[in-house]
Amino acid sequence: MSFNVLLIGAGEINFGSVEGPWNHTLRLERKLGSNLKVLCLIDPDTDRAAAQLKTKLSGPAASAYADCKIFSTVSEAANALPETPQLAIVGVPPFVRGSDAPGSDLELQLVRAFSSCALFVEKPVSCGPADACWRVAAELQKRQVLVTVGYMLRYSAAVQMMKRIIQENNLIVMGTNARYVMAYEYARKLSWWNKASSGGPIVEQATHFCDLSRYFGGDVSLPSVTAHTVEHYEPPGHLKAQRFDESLVPPENRLPRLTNASWKYTNGAVGSLTHVIALHGTTYDTEFEIYADGYRLKLMDPYNNPVLSVRRPGIETEEIIHFPEDDPFYSELSTIVDEVQQSPRRAAILSTYQDAVKTYEFTWCIRRAGEHSARTQQQSNATK
């Protein structure tokens, strides 16, 4: 029996990139096999969409795309498609979604056009005002739309083992510490380097670790958030391996090279995050730590080759656990496909739209705190 899918976006998130392991179509092909039927690919850049479709039609999963149409808008697809989609994969930039304002209301366009269609929405939920995101969340809830947001690290086998260790030992998290060092050399998309369109490195990229922080630490006391940055105009912020012309980005919208943030959780625990744009090549360096009485849990390289290091009471050495077959990108897509196919649903979604909006609000607090400290530093330097 075929499983009908809409693909929204012909870019790297849906079709893969040298920059990272993301590739939603590849995981859908693996999950659904011969049952996958891609009804259409929607992207305003129809030439790029046609190129991606051509590649798929010459590949091993060609049958899944045999009847795929290309449209530039959701309304075109709604007027032309003879079949009902079961799942829409929303892999487009955040400035076109997460709002009820025309042009940024992609989720609302989809649920109005295809009322029974579930949504898989990439993170972050938007790059616009959070209050608009909450209105979208309310509308999705009112329509009882099944939605998940792409915080795939929640589905990681290592992360779930960390959850079990905490639960089985009745631990209370004392603190979290996240470190995300980006390899930027091949990140050449100009819109990503412009925080007016991407939201910036915390809102768009480190959002995964902000979400993981909330997943373990709980709700954040937003007034407690503080941050400092290294900006593009400061000597430590000069990058030598950029393969694009950053002068095309207005100076006020260029990305901070390093952001260091800290905060309190509402239960009294403390969290911290360091995000850095520094490495050359394609390999990122990422770690996430949790501290509790008697325990230190350290997750290393969760995106590619996850390794969990555990210190337990009474043991001076680290326990090292590998997860060689784990693919959280696959697990998150597999989960929503299963939810669509099963009745009654199992409530297995780990990242709801409403919870993802909380993460979004949190990332904006970090961004604003960093911008405030940068302005303060500039003003201080100007008076010297």
From TrEMBL:
Pfam families: GFO_IDH_MocA, ox_reductase_C. Residues 3-151 form the Gfo/Idh/MocA-like oxidoreductase N-terminal domain. It comes from the Eukaryota. Gene3D superfamilies: Dihydrodipicolinate Reductase, domain 2 (3.30.360.10), NAD(P)-binding Rossmann-like Domain (3.40.50.720). Signal peptide: none annotated. GO terms for molecular function: nucleotide binding. This is Oxidoreductase C terminal-domain-containing protein. It comes from Laetiporus sulphureus 93-53.
